[in-house]
Specification:
This protein has 367 residues and is an alpha/beta fold. It has 3 domains: 69 residues; 60 residues, no CATH class; 190 residues, 3-Layer(aba) Sandwich (Rossmann fold). A hairpin with a 4-residue loop joins strand 14 and strand 15. Helix 1 packs across helix 2 and helix 4 packs across helix 6. The chain is extended.
Length: 367
């Protein structure tokens, strides 16, 4: 009886993609893993080419590098007589767009995107609802066809007149503006136990940032990172984020986020938090109180208190959990329940397959 026969797995190549595009897809992943270091990413790409034969005699890694420069994805600077390759602004934007497509799918850009509510009023977009004119309504909201029809019905055509009671108004969708703070965990646990959690976290962060700035351009977005402490960064800094020798001071991150949102005039406010689990650090005076050996009651109580405070001032917290350990997820569930926010759980391989927990509506679904 013949048994199983094993051989090397050779994945089928997408022949529809040009050589540059195939290598570019891999290069973008390597750039995030190397925190924006072009030299390290190119070295890793060369090693992969040697091992898996990504190129042929017609197009090599050197050709790809020259194309990166020619297309404006990287730039070279001269420092002390040595050329150094760096990512361009074009490449930083491309990384965010790529993350958005990978995680949330292809979304159409809206010229004036906002968060639609169930209210109507002086908004941005017309809808199909018609109502009678009221004092104070804008003239550009008048439904002229319906208004002229009313005038004809009410007064006839011999002596045509248009009175106030004939006017009708086309309702506009009321659009809500939202202020968002994006929190990113850069503690050492994000690369602990041989798992690279910071790269998926950066992808989620870039996708969220691109989603908010392109689909909801009237919103405000502030980004902070938290380790032993918390501080603000710019969106362009996301590809270069690195994990430090830090504990997880979720408390400092939440306090900074709340302080930022207090200064925002928008009524709708929210916090997005990307983390791999439990808080392990808090500041007491000028000293740090740390405990990495489980859920410390002192740290946990303070963290959950902040979650409750956010709920009282109507700041929901959406947590993106980049870990599959049930022990780590337990804290997120309790944190989300108290805040009445939302949580997304994702493993490291399938960022798009989140389990959406909405404690406000008390339901669970797969998205």
């Amino acid at each position: 009886m013949e048994g199983h026969r094993f051989r090397d797995f050779v994945p089928e190549q997408d022949k529809s993609k040009a050589n540059f595009e195939r290598l570019f897809d891999i290069f973008q992943q390597l750039i995030l893993m190397t925190s924006g270091n072009v030299g390290e990413a190119m070295s890793a790409l060369t090693s992969l080419d040697k091992r898996f034969g990504l190129t042929d005699e017609s197009y090599g890694i050197g050709d790809f590098y020259e194309d990166l420069k020619r297309k404006g994805y990287i730039t070279e600077t001269n420092e002390e007589g040595e050329g150094e390759a760096r990512l361009s602004a074009k490449m930083e934007i491309n990384l965010r767009q790529n993350a958005l497509e990978e995680i949330f799918g292809k979304l159409k850009r809206h010229k004036a995107g906002n968060h639609t509510t169930r209210q109507t009023g002086r908004g941005d977009e017309m809808n199909t609802d018609i109502r009678q004119y009221a004092f104070g309504d804008e003239l550009d909201s008048i439904a002229y066809t319906e208004s002229f029809r009313n005038a004809q019905i009410n007064h006839g055509t011999d002596e045509f007149m248009l009175l106030e009671e004939d006017l009708e108004i086309r309702e506009r969708e009321f659009k809500a503006q939202t202020s968002t703070v994006l929190m990113i965990d850069i503690s050492h646990s994000m690369i602990l136990y041989g798992e690279d959690r910071i790269t998926p976290a950066k992808k989620v962060a870039m996708a969220l940032g691109e989603l908010i700035t392109t689909r909801y351009p009237k919103d405000t977005l502030d980004i902070i990172v938290f380790g032993n402490d918390a501080w603000q960064i710019q969106m362009k800094d996301l590809p270069y984020l690195e994990v430090g020798p830090y504990h997880t001071n979720t408390i400092a991150g939440l306090e900074l986020a709340m302080d930022i949102l207090r200064r925002r005039k928008n009524q709708n406010k929210q916090i997005f938090m990307i983390t791999d689990g439990k808080p392990t650090c808090m500041k007491v005076g000028i000293n740090y109180y740390k405990n990495s050996f489980g859920l410390d009651r002192k740290i946990l109580r303070k963290t959950l208190t902040l979650a409750q405070q956010c709920r009282k001032i109507k700041i929901p917290i959406t947590t993106f959990m980049i870990a599959s350990d049930p022990y780590l997820q337990e804290f997120v569930r309790e944190f989300t329940r108290i805040n009445q926010g939302k949580a997304y759980y994702s493993n490291l391989n399938e960022l798009g397959n989140f389990i959406f927990e909405d404690f406000q509506k008390n339901r669970r679904k797969q998205v």
